[in-house]
Design a protein that fits this description.
By secondary structure, this protein is an all-alpha fold. The protein has helices at about 5-15, 20-35, 40-55, 60-75, 75-80, 85-100, 105-115, 120, 125-140, 145-155, 160-175, 175-190, 190-195, 205-225, 230-240, 255.
């Protein structure tokens, strides 16, 4: 497959050019379907659903349902390509769902993954599974349990960005502002890891790359709530410098003002 479209999509996303990023991902998916290239199609679908969720796009909820059906239908084919591929695609759909508080989809993914041997055999997949379990706990109103689940994992040097991001959301929901602020600062300062730490299949890259910049907004919001206006203003300034507001989805500029 021609991966240049997905590279262009990631570059555009990193620059805050969301419309172009989604256009590149859609075009890549169309090319993959035309070529009947499952690896390329899986990556393109992952890019698009991640971006829709990160943007809080109204189209994301029906799209999540569509991705669940596609994931279920392609279980054997994805596992034949690479054993972790099916599990990681489902987990990525779960993370996208968690971003828009779609608890039903999160729990649907977890139910289908229950008992998967891949969770035991692949440590990176196991970490992602723990993160999605924590997202489920957070959405079920058990934010302190979610934070406690992930706390020992983020203490490890090999903790994935998606785990740290899930811990930040749990800590914010549990009103553990100091822990959440530490996470936001960590995420915003690990930009290099965002491009390389994408699981076994590369599916986490869009989530990671966007999260590393969105963490500046989380930092600003947390510091504002703590009365730390100087830090909050600095984080907002860095965010706007990275992503000009006029190019962003409507859900994001309102968080800056």
């Amino acid at each position: 497959g021609d991966w240049s479209g997905l590279d262009a999509s990631i570059t555009a996303l990193d620059r805050g050019q969301w419309e172009r990023a989604q256009t590149e991902a859609r075009q890549a998916q169309a090319k993959a379907l035309e070529a009947n290239h499952l690896v390329f199609e899986t990556a393109a679908r992952g890019h698009l659903i991640s971006q829709l969720a990160l943007a809080g796009d109204a189209a994301v909820l029906p799209a999540l349902g569509q991705e669940l059906r596609w994931w279920t239908a392609h279980a054997d084919a994805l596992r034949a390509l690479y054993p972790p591929a099916w599990d990681e695609y489902g987990l990525m759909v779960g993370f996208a769902a968690a971003l828009v508080d779609d608890l039903a989809t999160v729990d649907n993914v977890l139910a289908r993954l229950k008992g998967s041997a891949v969770l035991k055999d692949y440590p990176l997949v196991n970490q992602q599974h723990e993160a999605l379990l924590a997202e489920s706990e957070r959405l079920h109103g058990q934010a302190k349990a979610a934070e406690a689940r992930l706390r020992p994992i983020i203490a490890q040097l090999n903790a994935l960005l998606v785990v740290r991001a899930a811990h930040m959301r749990a800590a914010r929901a549990a009103r553990m502002s100091d822990a959440a602020l530490k996470d936001a600062q960590w995420l915003a300062s690990r930009r290099g890891r965002a491009f390389v730490e994408s699981g076994n299949t590369g599916l986490l890259e869009p989530l990671n790359v966007a999260t590393s910049t969105l963490a500046l907004l989380d930092q600003a919001e947390i510091e504002s709530a703590l009365g730390q206006s100087e830090g909050a203003d600095a984080a907002r300034t860095r965010f706007v410098a990275a992503w000009p507001l006029e190019a962003l989805p409507a859900t994001l500029p309102v968080r800056v003002r």
